[in-house]
Amino acid sequence: MPVTMRLRVGAAALLTLATLAAVACSAPAAPPASGTAPAATNPAPAVPAPSASQVPAGAPEGTAKVEGSVQRISVDLTKGYYDPSVIHAKAGVPLEISFGQGSGCLGSVLIPDFSVNQDLTNGGAVVKLPAMKAGEYSFSCGMRMVYGKIVVQ
Ligand SMILES: [Cu+2]
């Protein structure tokens, strides 16, 4: 019996830690149980739209520049999000994205469709993607908290 007790206490402590971690990660979680909502950094829109692509509306956009047989674009991370967050690119042309230095939350970038998991903490990195078909390809920070997408046309 005492073992069971200890396990229960341990599980409760883990749950508390998980809750704290979720709050620290700032992703909008379950609505607060009681009336007073915690102060949010950004006032949340009245109707949050959970969509496949989690790039916020009005996020900065940019278009990759075709240079010979590749297209290139630079993405700045110094503001705590991807600038641009929406990258417009041409189908059928390899794309090189030059991600700037990232730290903390933005210390790595994931592009699941191309199995990219790139560290950005040593001055950033150039991620080379193959020629793509038309479509949308999302990318995010390592914790999947900050999102961007590549829109290929
Ligand atoms: Cu993150």
Describe the structure.
This protein is of the alpha/beta class and 153 residues long. The chain has two domains: 1-31; 61-152, Immunoglobulin-like. Helix content is 16%, strand content 31%. It contains one helix and ten strands; from the N terminus they run αββββββββββ. The strands form two sheets. The protein has a six-stranded mixed beta sheet with strand order 1-4-10-9-6-7, with no helix packed on it. The longest helix is centred in the N-terminal third of the chain and has 24 residues, at 2-25. It is globular and about 35 Å long. Bound molecules: copper (II) ion (CU). Copper (II) ion is lined by residues 105, 141-143, 145-146.
Strand line-up across the major sheet: 1-4-10-9-6-7
Q: Which distinct ligands sit in these coordinates?
A: copper (II) ion
Low-confidence stretches: 1-5, 7-40, 43-52
Q: What is the CATH C level class of the largest domain, in words?
A: Mainly Beta
Secondary-structure element order, N to C = HEEEEEEEEEE
Q: State the distance separating the first and last CA atoms.
A: 63 Å
Count the E strands: 10
Biggest pleated sheet: 6 strands, mixed
* Tally of helical runs: 1
**What general form does the structure show?**
globular
**Helix-residue proportion:** 10-25%
CATH fold descriptor of the largest domain: Immunoglobulin-like
Mean pLDDT comes to 78
Radius of gyration: 19 Å
State the CATH architecture of the largest domain: Sandwich
